[in-house]
Amino acid sequence: MINTVRNTVMAIINKDNNGYITPDEFNLFAKQAQLEIFEQQFYDYTNWVNKRNARMANDGYSDIQKQIAEKIDRFSEQATLTYNSGAGAFPAPSNSYFVNVLLYANKEIEYVAHTKIMNLISSNLTAPTTSYPAYYEKENFYYVYPSTIQTNVSALHVRYPVDPKWTYSVVSGSPIFNQSAVDYQDFELSESSQNDLVFKILSYAGVNIREADVVQFAMAGENAESTKQS
Question: Is 201 helix (H, G, I), strand (E, B) or coil?
Answer without folding.
Answer: helix
